[in-house]
Amino acid sequence: MEENKEQAEKCRDLAKTYLKNGDYTKAIKFFEKSKRLYPLPGLDGLITRCKSLQSQPSPSSGPRRPSAAAQEATNNRKAQENGTADVRGSTPEQRRLVSEVVRNSKKQEAHYKVLGVAKSASDAEIKKAYRKLSLKVHPDKNPAPGSDEAFKAVGLAYATLSDERKRQIYDSTGDVDPDNTGGSSDPFAGFRRGGGGGGGRHGEVDPEDIFRMFFNGGMGGGMGGGFGGPGFRVYSSGTGFGGMPNRRHTERGRRQQEAGGGQGLLQLLPIIFFILMSFVSFPEETATSSSQYFSLTHKHPYTNPMETKHRGVVKDIPYFVSDKFMRTTIRDPYKVSQVERLVEKSYDQFLQNECRAQRKHQRQLQQRAASFRGDQRKRASMQADADAFELSRCQEHKDLFMNKGRR
Fold it and tell me: Which residue spans traverse the membrane (predicted)?
């Protein structure tokens, strides 16, 4: 099989060209051909990325003039971001509802509280609650300050609770966005989520997409199973790279402690956080203090494909950067190498968590087979399915990191 390696590399390189040109069908074709020839590291991730990009809706063929309602909602969101939102266009009930949703999104068992359903709620009850609430807090219909944040919280709650696997993870771990974790407390919690509190936990979950899918044909049983593809972002704070992830974990721990008392310690957490961050060395950033560096999904403004290539970093991990990155940061090889180290570390953590999630799912299949008391042939079939369950993320992590697959 070793003699096919060179041909596999040619197919992979050709597929990358198609990927950069946006021809995802041909990219998938040649990535899969490369995989058949030789199991090069990173191919599974590239195939997953192509399929994810291929499934995204393409932009309309021509520009459309936004409706008056859409334009007003856009203005409202901009006003909220600038802290100058005007409450005069909203009713007291709209403001009360938005405030309640945002407040509930920061509590324990937030998703259930946001949708206003019990933890034992059925899929139908969850769907009904989402249908009713999302219409009331949608920024196009609700001009109250914070409606954008409330709408995101409602979308994230539905995306999690309507998916059986994510709901199980959420119920057992309390993680607000299981899709970003692969099944555990997310190492990308700060990387993929856009901000603190309830409104920024949207990573791969686009509340507008959920809304459109729900009201334009439904979502079936949820946002889909599987183990998802990476889609996180890296942020810098005033302390440099990586400050926000720790801060978010601190805020999540703070909310848990508030539920059981411990107010005095909570007041010290921000101070402790900044003291700890002062000992961490990160590359300096000349842009604004909250600039974003990369995304592992093709999503505006991250539209320029890149791959890790610097010495000492696992090669060929694809990621995307903004036009601003291409104009400024790309000129500094040192900064780019530091970004690629973060890409490598994040992808390493992502694969570890995805692997754990796949192993957990396999154990669940095995347990179901072992506890099945019906027909023996059915039980044998269930056991065979469990044993044959592919741990693709585990293998990819082994190829890339455990075997030091640096080329």
Answer: none
